[in-house]
Amino acid sequence: MAMTASHSGPQELSETSVYVYGVTWADGAAVPKSAGRDVVVVEQSELAAIVSPAPNGPVRTRRRELMRHLDVLQAVFTSKTVLPVQFGSVFPGRAVVADELLSERYEELVELLHQFEGLAELRVRAAYREEAILAEIIEGDPNVARLRELTRAAGRGADPLRVQLGEAVARCLTARRARDAKAISGVLLGCARDAVVEEPRTEYELMRASYLVERRKIAAFDARMDELARNERDRIDFAYTGPLPPHSFVSLTPRRT
Amino acid sequence: MAVATHGTASNYLQRAPSPSSLADVVDLILDKGLVIDAYVRVAVIGIELVTIDARIVIASVDTYLRFAEAVNRLDLAQTEAAGLKELRDGGSDNDTDTRGKSKGMFEGAKEAFTGNGKRK
Question: For residue B42, how far is the Cα from the chain centroid?
Answer without folding.
Answer: 32
